[in-house]
Structures are given as structure tokens and as C-alpha cells.
Design goal:
With 267 residues, this protein is an all-alpha fold. It has one domain. Strands 1-2 form a two-stranded antiparallel sheet. It is globular, with a radius of gyration of 30 Å.
């Protein structure tokens, strides 16, 4: 074996060859280290950027609502169809691993058409109810944000667990009540169980509506908490769209519940 033979290992030519090979390997390895792509550096999520994206989303939502409002009577199928498309887009955005700005804005536009159409529908039956719902929505959002910013209200594991159970229960109730409305149950009341009195003069819809408004307010707390933790943990900038989508989804839900609550009170 030449490598183990002292005659070869002490030979200057052998030594120079071995050294040259070692130097060549080292140079190649060094080149690979420099040429190897570095770990991607992402821009962190910021509160300012999240606010901008949220505002942009609501601008698109309001623009869509304008279209839905204008076309509500002439083309009712437009805002009804928009409700179904918005539901699909909402589910896609919820379960998508990484946020997509295009999908978030698409949801805002389509959901806006539905919001405008159904708002017009309620306004024709109960003039002034849309203004009441809008003002109430702004008040609830403002108060919730103020309480969260002051540290007087925070998301907790126990409260979130109760919230999730309540949400599942409310979803089941809503589906059952929809079936009752479609098949003429509850004495043919157009609101289903919501229109039935829990006590004389106070329908179930009022009690349930207030309960759901509280749920929506806590959902806003969860949205604010997500954004706050995302900023603190320097999450990738793209997750600002997740925060914007969450707030928009909750505010839309809150507005629809308040719209129905005031309509039941006015009925």
C-alpha cells in the first residue's frame, strides 16, 4: 500500500501531491459554503402594516356593498349568489396555510356585494335599521378595541374554550332554526324560534342576539390578540393579511347579527 509505505510517505513529491489535494478539497468546500443559498430573511409583521391592510380590505368591502345595494332590487340573485361564493372564499381563507392577499380581497369584494344586498332588503322593510346596525357595530368594535388596548380584557385558554363550545352550539341552533323557517315551523313565524317570545314582549331573538354580540366581541379580542402576538414574535409580514381577514370576518358577522337584532326589535 503506497500510502502506508514510509518510502512513499516521506517522498517530497508525495507530500506535495497530498497537500495540493487537501488544498483543492478545502477550496471546493469553501466555494460551496459561499455559493450555498442563505436562509431567507423575511420582513416582520408590523402593526402599521396590518392596519393598512385592514383598511384596504374594508374599502374593497364597502365598494362591493355599494354594488350590492344598488343592484339589490333589480338583481336579487346577485347578492344571494354572492353569499354562497363568499362562504366558499371564507372557508378557503380560513383553512389556507399561508395567507393570500388576492383571496382576502376577493372575499372582501364578494362579501361586500352580499352585505349591500341584504342591507337593502332589511332597509326596505325597516327604514333606518341599517344606520342603527352600522352605528352599533362601530360602538362594539371601538369599545372592544379600547378595552383590549388598555389591558382590561384579554384572551385566555379557558375563555377561548368556552367560546368555541358556544360557537358550535350557536351554529347548530342556526341550522335547526333555518330548517324551521323553511318548513313553516314555529307557527309560521318568519324568524323561526327567534321570533317566539321567551317572556311576553321579549322574543328569543333579542336574548340570542345579545348573546351572539358578546361572542362576536370576544372573537374580536382573539383577532387583536393574534395581531399583537404576531407583531411581538416578528411573524412574517404576509400574516398581516391574516389579521386583516380575521377582523373583517368578525366585523361582518357582528354587523349581520346586529342588523337582525334591530329588525326583530322593530318587527
Amino acid at each position: 500500500m503506497a500510502g502506508n509505505n514510509p518510502a512513499f510517505s516521506r517522498n517530497p513529491e508525495f507530500t506535495r501531491g497530498t497537500l495540493a489535494t487537501t488544498q483543492n478539497i478545502s477550496a471546493e468546500q469553501l466555494g460551496e459554503m459561499y455559493n450555498r443559498p442563505s436562509a431567507p430573511v423575511h420582513e416582520p409583521m408590523t402593526m402599521e402594516d396590518t392596519i393598512v391592510k385592514t383598511v384596504v380590505s374594508f374599502i374593497v368591502l364597502v365598494a362591493g356593498a355599494g354594488v350590492g345595494w344598488i343592484t339589490a332590487e333589480a338583481m336579487p340573485f346577485l347578492w344571494i349568489g354572492a353569499a354562497l361564493v363568499a362562504l366558499v372564499l371564507a372557508l378557503v381563507n380560513i383553512f389556507k396555510k399561508k395567507p393570500s392577499p388576492a383571496l382576502v380581497l376577493a372575499y372582501a369584494a364578494v362579501e361586500g356585494v352580499f352585505i349591500g344586498g341584504i342591507s337593502r332588503f332589511y332597509e326596505v322593510m325597516f327604514p333606518g335599521v341599517v344606520v342603527q346596525a352600522v352605528v352599533a357595530t362601530l360602538v362594539v368594535v371601538g369599545v372592544t378595541l379600547a378595552l383590549f388596548a388598555s389591558g382590561k380584557i384579554r384572551a385566555s385558554k379557558k375563555a377561548t374554550k368556552v367560546f368555541m363550545i358556544a360557537m358550535v352550539g350557536y351554529a347548530v341552533f342556526s341550522l335547526v332554526n333555518l330548517g324551521i323557517m323553511l318548513f313553516g315551523g314555529a307557527g309560521g313565524n318568519p324568524w323561526g324560534v327567534r321570533g317566539m317570545d321567551i317572556i311576553p314582549g321579549v322574543p328569543w331573538g333579542v336574548v340570542i342576539g345579545i348573546f351572539v354580540v358578546i361572542l362576536a366581541a370576544y372573537s374580536l379580542v382573539l383577532d387583536f390578540d393574534f395581531i399583537q402576538k404576531g407583531v411581538q414574535n416578528k411573524a412574517p409580514k404576509q400574516y398581516a393579511w391574516t389579521g386583516a381577514f380575521g377582523i373583517m370576518l368578525t366585523v361582518v358577522w357582528l354587523y349581520l347579527e346586529l342588523l337582525r337584532l334591530f329588525a326583530i326589535l322593530r318587527d
